[in-house]
């Protein structure tokens, strides 16, 4: 959960004294400088955040809701996401993976050190490919069971050890939708702190047509025309179908294809 001062937009910045008055802190992480001012992430226990929901002067909600609804100024989103990812890592790595001893926070929160075996532990980032497979004026979109009922999006999956992102695109597309792909083009990347991923956006050239859905991964997958995707981006699809909002890289992967920036001719 993220705590901010209630308002329109909400204000996620607190002085050190204000932050400490909210609840006792777990870790404090140095995020960097904005101008000459330092920015820090201040962690509190989940139950303390729940208790703060009763206060009318505060907004307490999850980062996904903040980003999708634009509840804070956009400039605040990167440091909030950074703080969330780092505090999540610290909460789950309090013991040494090498010997099991309790570790300590060092380097302003960017490392944990083991006093027992002297191992050093650093935050991880999990690489994920997210791709739009296209065949002329058609593309493949899928539905996760956790999506809202109207939403369709790009397919995605974690990169395996020793795998290039191009090979991961081809493997995941075939595993999830049964579609074979050939050429893969990198589009853009996006940090995605849910909890600590780096989304590697791509377009892929589909070379097969029949879809076979992996029901353990997806609720459904199907072909969409470019006109349909354009309507989804504008929230004007005749069946009310939608795509991810602009805060997600999937939205921009789809938009680039609709606007003709991507073609495999």
Question: Can you put this structure into words, describing what you see?
Answer:
This protein has three domains: 2-92, no CATH class; 94-123, no CATH class; 126-258, Nucleoside Triphosphate Pyrophosphohydrolase, CATH 3.90.79.10. 26% of the residues lie in helices and 31% in strands. The chain has helices at residues 16-22, 46-52, 63-69, 77-92, 165-177, 226-233, 249-258; strands spanning 2-5, 25-34, 37-44, 58-61, 104-106, 111-113, 120-121, 126-135, 138-143, 155-158, 181-192, 197-206, 220-225. It starts with a strand and ends in a 7-residue tail after the last helix. The mean pLDDT is 95.
Task: Draw up the topology in text.
Blueprint: E1 2-5, H1 16-22, E2 25-34, E3 37-44, H2 46-52, E4 58-61, H3 63-69, H4 77-92, E5 104-106, E6 111-113, E7 120-121, E8 126-135, E9 138-143, E10 155-158, H5 165-177, E11 181-192, E12 197-206, E13 220-225, H6 226-233, H7 249-258
Helix pairs in contact: 6-7
